[in-house]
Amino acid sequence: MSSNVYTSDVTVDSADKAQLVESIRLREQRLAANVDELMGRVHPSALANRAAESAKSVLVADDGSVKSDRAALIGGVILSVAALVTFLAIRKSRA
Question: Which InterPro entries does this UniProt record tie to the protein (predicted)?
Answer without folding.
Answer: DUF3618
